Amino acid sequence: MKAIQVHTFGGPEQLVYSDTVTTPEPGATQVLIQNSYAGLNFKDTLTRSGAYHGGNPDLPFIPGIEASGVITAVGDKVSQFAVGDRVAYMTGTMSTKENNCYAQYTAFDAGSNIVKIPDEISMEQACACMVQGLTGHYLTTDAYRVKTGDWVLIHGAGGGLGMMLTQLCKRAGATVIGTCGSVSKAKQALENGCDFAIDYSAEDFVAQVKSLTKNRGVNAVYDGIGKTTFLPGLDTLAKRGTMVLFGNACGEHPDPIAPTLLAQKGSLSLIRPALYDYLLSQQEMQIRATDLFGFIQEGSLNIPVSAYYPLDQAAQAHRDLEQRSVIGKALFSIDDGSTC
């Protein structure tokens, strides 16, 4: 089968394409999926470079943590899925280090994070709903439940997850301020639904947020950037506001802070959640995915796929992502013949 493999941790050049990788055989509790699309995520760049904080995969490995496709074989003990089912799934946890989605076929546990795709949902939409959609869902319903009247600050609002978060926050009734790293991404963030967009490469986002909120501050900050935005972000929060720190796309984790700092800045709350802890069961995965598919069908969630890469262009895709030139969600198109 065709796949991308990493034999040595390093830069994008370590993503090696091959069309002679052995096709996996499904175990008794697994299904074999012929992938149509695989998602491009920032975590993929961290595992490729050997810098993922949850632990690095054993070499060699096939990267990628989300995909959609069609089941072509099922194990002897699998009853909930059948050959021909269209499915979307997310591999890995903080502990297993499993990836395996940049490939034509993936063998996957039928009792894990996998769902059937409704007929009304495309393969592309379903794939894009996995990591970023599920992340956006738990961030806005569990990490901090967004409600009508809230003001919310979203860092990286021009990226795929930022766009997802914006739409989910707007659906919940919030006013959304988005920060972006360029004028073009700020424009895209506004078109996606942000009420206000700040180009943090040219503007002081703390001063802008205080001005927009008349010095009151926002109820919540969603920060997937990390060290460069974390401490300034605390200064944008209203009293008893919540900082949701869910990633480190800048490449560095924030420095430790004293808990008393949160009290000094207005009795703030700080949470550092991870997606996997909000998918503790197949039932929880199904509930979140069903919500997202429903939002798409009702028209309140539009997933902007901005780029499609062939699998043999994985290195270029990683370069584009790391250079912040990807606007919205990007997918690898693997087997066009199996898409809806």
Account of the 3D structure:
The protein is an alpha/beta fold and 340 residues long. The chain has two domains: 3-130 and 276-338, Medium-chain alcohol dehydrogenases, catalytic domain (Quinone Oxidoreductase, Chain A, domain 1), CATH 3.90.180.10; 147-272, 3-Layer(aba) Sandwich (Rossmann fold), CATH 3.40.50. Helices cover 29% and strands 25% of the residues. The protein has nine helices and 15 strands. The protein has helices at residues 42-49, 123-143, 160-171, 183-192, 205-212, 227-234, 259-264, 282-298, 314-322, and strands spanning 3-6, 15-18, 30-39, 66-74, 86-90, 105-109, 114-116, 151-155, 175-180, 196-199, 218-223, 237-245, 269-271, 305-310, 329-333. The strands form three sheets. Strands 3, 4, 5, 6, 7, 14 and 15 form a seven-stranded mixed sheet that branches. The chain is globular and about 60 Å long.
- Helix/strand order, N-terminal first: EEEHEEEEHEHEHEHEHEHEHEHE
Number of helices: 9
Main sheet attributes: strand count, strand direction, barrel closure: 7 strands, mixed
Q: Class by helix and strand content?
A: alpha/beta
Total discrete domains: 2
Overall spatial form: globular
Average pLDDT rating: 92
Radius of gyration: 20 Å
- The number of E-state strands comes to 15
Could you name the CATH topology of the largest domain? Quinone Oxidoreductase, Chain A, domain 1
Indicate the proportion of strand residues. 15-25%
Under CATH, the homologous superfamily of the largest domain reads Medium-chain alcohol dehydrogenases, catalytic domain
